[in-house]
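Margin note: ligand = FE2/S2 (inorganic) cluster.
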Amino acid sequence: MPAKRISEHPVLEFQRGEKFFFDFEGKKIPAYPGDTIAAALYAQGLQKFTESKLLKRPRGFFCAIGKCSSCIMRVNGVPHVRSCITLAEEGMKVERQSAMPDFPDVALPCTPVNEHKIEIAVIGGGPAGLSAAIVAANNGADVHLFDENANLGGQLVKQTHQFFGRYEEHAGTRGVDIGKALAEEAHEAGVKIHSDSTVLGYYPEMTVTVDSSNSLEIYRCKGIVYATGATENFLAFENNDLPGIYGAGGVQTLMNEYGVTPGDKVLMIGAGNVGLIVSYQLIQAGVEVVEVLEALPKVGGYQVHASKLRRAGVPISTRHSIIKAIGTEKVEGAVVQGLDDDWKPIDGTERTVECDIICIAVGLQPDNHFLRLAGCETKHVPELGGIVPLRNEYLETTVSNLFIAGDSAGIEEATVAILEGKLAGAAITEKIKGPSSELTTIKEKAILGINDMREGPYGKRSKKGVNLCTFEGGCIG
Amino acid sequence: MTGYERTGVLDNNHIKKPSKERLERGPVVIIECVENIPCNPCVEVCPISAIGMEDINDTPDVNLDGCTGCALCVTECPGLAIFVIDCSEDDGCLVTVPYEYLPVPKKGEVVTALDREGNDMGDAEVIRIRESGMTYAVTLEVEKDKIWDVRGLKVKK
Amino acid sequence: MGCTGPEGEKMTVIVCRCEDITEEDILAAIEDGYCEIEILKRHLRIGMGPCQGKTCISLLERILKRELGTSSDKIGRPTARPPSRQVSFAILAGDDHE
Ligand SMILES: Cc1cc2nc3c(=O)[nH]c(=O)nc-3n(C[C@H](O)[C@H](O)[C@H](O)COP(=O)(O)OP(=O)(O)OC[C@H]3O[C@@H](n4cnc5c(N)ncnc54)[C@H](O)[C@@H]3O)c2cc1C
Ligand code: SF4
Ligand code: SF4
Ligand code: FES
Ligand code: FES
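Resulting structure:
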C-alpha cells in the first residue's frame, strides 16, 4: 500500500466525519468532510494527477497548498481547479484534464461581479495575516481577511511539533494549536473572514480582485496587509518531476492536515529545519525515513532537531545530493552521490537508495508576485529567500498603505511572522484610523521582539537581509 | 567544524555534567542543546528557576546544584533535548527521556534502550511515565555505565 | 551538470513543470545568447504557466547563476502580469456573462 489514512498518531487526532463519495473518472472515491479532492484521491492510491503539457510525463501534486498548479483537474466540468485546496463534495465529478483545457462543458455557477468598499484587506490567514487582522480589528478598523484555503492558520495548521521561539509568543506550544488560537481570536475581534477566497490581482488605488468560491468579487480598500507566506523551492535532477517527488511542506500538509501518509520509505533532500522537522513527523506518522541528504558540509537546521532524528536511527549524509530518481510512472528509488568541496559529484560514490517517496526541502521563497503587480519596488536578497519588497521600519512598502508581514516579506519563522503581523496591523490602523497610545505601544513592543529574535547566529542572517531592503521614512511616526 | 554540525550527534564533551557527588545526591537534569537558537521554554517552565538565559539566543545555563530533577522541562523542550539522570539508588540508574512516538510504552514494560545514533543499548524497564501536552517523559532503568549513552527508546514489537 | 547521463543516454531534468521546459532547453538557450530571465521567459515560455513562475523562476535563477556566474541583479527579475494567479475558467466565464 503506498498511501494510507493515518488511524493512530502520537500527537494528532483525526476525527473523520461521515464518509461520502465523489466520482473520479467513473470510480467512486470515498472522502470525509474536510478532505481536499487531492487528499482523498491520494488516500486511494492515486499518484498521477495530470500529464504534462508537451512531454506527456506523469505528474503528481507538489506543494499541496495551492501554489504550484501541479494538481489542476477538471471538477464538475470546470478545468484548472487546484485539487489540493478544493474540498471534496458529495457527488462531485472529478477528472484529469489534458494539459490544454477545453472550454468548460457545463453551465457555470457564475455570479456577477460584486463590488465592496472596505477599510483594510488582509491577504493571507497565516500567523502574520491573522495577527495583523486581530490588532487592526481590536483597534476599531473594518477588517476583511482573505485566505485561499478552507482552514485558517497557514503553515501553522500542519506543524505538529512544539514551537521554538519566545514563550510569550506561544513557543513550546504546537503550531497547530497556535493556528487555532489565532483564528479564534480573529473571529472574536470581529474580523470578517473569507476563507476559500483567492486574491487574484491588484488594480491601482488599492483594489483587489478575489475569487470567492467561484464568484469574482472586487474590494476597494483604504489599506492592504499582504501576508501570503512562501513557496517551496524545486530542485534540478534527472526525473525530478516523477509522481512521488513532493515538496516537504506538501507532504507535511497531506500527512498532518489531512491524515494521509505519502508512502512507505522516504528519502529527504535537505537538512535545514524543514527537512529535519518533516522527517521527524514522518516517523511519528509511522513512515520510514531512509536517509536525509544535505549538499552543504554541515547540517543547516538546529542541532536539537538533527539529534532527535539521529536518535531515531535516521542517517544524515552531508555533502551528498540526489542525481536521479528511478522509475517511469512513479518513484521506485533514487541514485545519490557524494559531492566534493566544489559541489561536483565525486566519481565512484554513486549508490542507489531504496525509496518510494522523495521529499524536497531545499528552502522557501517569498510569495510576492502580487506586490510586484502593485508596483512595489523589490530587491533580490538571498538572506530572505529571494525577491522581497522594499519596506520601511513599519513594514509599509514603496506603495503607500500597502503593508507586508511574515514569510512573504522574507523567509523567517512564525514568531517573527506574528510580531510582524502585529507591527503591520498597528501601523496600518494608525494610518487609516489615526494614532493612539495603544497602537504606539503595540508597534514598539513588536519591534523590540523582532530585534530580539534576530540577535542569534540564525537570526543574524535575516537581520542582515532585512537591513538590505529597509528604507527610511514613509509611514507616519 | 565540530562533529555534531556534520552528524547531528553530540558527544559527552559537549554536555554540562554534574559532579559525582551531585549525581549521587538525586535526579539531575542533562541539557543537550548547544547552539544559540532563539528558544526559551525550558527557562520559563522550571519551577525553581534553575535554568538561566540572559538573551533568548543564549544556550540554557543550568545550575545543577539547584535542579531538583523534577523533569518538568523534559516535556516542555520543543527540541526534545532535555534528559534527567538519577544515580542516587544503589541498584541501577534511571534515565528519563522525552518520547513522542507510538505505541506509548507502559509502566513495567521492557523496551529497547537507544543511544544518540539510535543504536540498540539493550533492554530497559520503564519505571515511570508522565505525559504533558502529548509529549511523554519516560523513565528507564539502565546500568550505571550506560547513563551517558542511553537517550531514547524503542518499544519492542 | 550536463544533459546526458554517464552512458550518454538522454536525461530529463524539468525546470518548469507547467510549461515542460527542461534544463537542456535552458542550457541551449543560454548557448544561443539568451541569458536574462525576462528574455528567457519570452523565448521559452518558462515561468508563463498556470503557477506564474512560482515554482520555476527561482530554480532558473540558480541555473543562470551557476552557468553565467552572474549576480541576480544582472540576470534581472521577472515582471509580473495580471492576474496574479491562474483564474479558474469559471470566473473568466463569469466575467464574460456580465
Ligand atoms: C516544516 C516547517 C517547520 C517550521 N517550524 C517552525 C518553528 O518551529 N518555529 C517557528 O517559529 N516557525 C516555524 N516554521 C515557519 C512558520 O511556519 C512560518 O514562518 C509561518 O507560518 C509564516 O507565516 P505567514 O503568515 O507569513 O505565512 P503562512 O503561514 O504561509 O500563511 C499564508 C497564508 O496565505 C494564504 N494565501 C496565499 N496566497 C493567497 C492568495 N493569493 N489569496 C488568499 N490567500 C492566500 C495561504 O493559504 C496561507 O494560509 C516552520 C515552517 C515549516 C514549513
Ligand atoms: S528538572 Fe526540574 S528543576 Fe531541573 S531544570 Fe528541569 S524543570 Fe528545573
Ligand atoms: S527549550 Fe530545549 S531547545 Fe529550547 S533552549 Fe531550552 S533546551 Fe534548548
Ligand atoms: S497547487 Fe496543488 S499541489 Fe501545488
Ligand atoms: S513551473 Fe514554470 S510556470 Fe509553473
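Residues 14-93 of chain C form a domain with the Arc Repressor Mutant, subunit A fold (CATH 1.10.10).
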